[in-house]
Automatic annotation (TrEMBL):
Residues 5-53 form the Helix-turn-helix domain. The lineage of its organism: Bacteria, Pseudomonadati, Spirochaetota, Spirochaetia, Spirochaetales. Pfam families: HTH_17. One of its GO terms (molecular function) is DNA binding. It comes from the Bacteria. InterPro entries: DNA-bd_dom_put_sf, HTH_17, SinI_DNA-bd. This is Conserved domain protein.
Length: 62
């Protein structure tokens, strides 16, 4: 089972503000699950998001 992360955990890992992580979660940029009023993320989803960002940068550079 994947490790579950809070919005604060994700903000620290990605070096983003809390408001940016909230925005990304709400618009679907970051895969997330809303449990009550709180957002939850899986470690695997965050890794895949980072990988997709790397791939986007490689494509833009070519």
């Amino acid at each position: 089972m994947d490790t579950t992360l809070t919005i604060t955990d994700v903000a620290e890992k990605l070096q983003l503000s809390l408001s940016t992580v909230y925005k990304f979660a709400e618009e679907g940029t970051l895969p997330a699950l809303k449990v009550g009023k709180q957002w939850r993320f899986t470690e695997e989803d965050i890794k895949q998001y980072l990988q997709s960002c790397k791939m986007t940068n490689v494509i833009k550079e070519e």
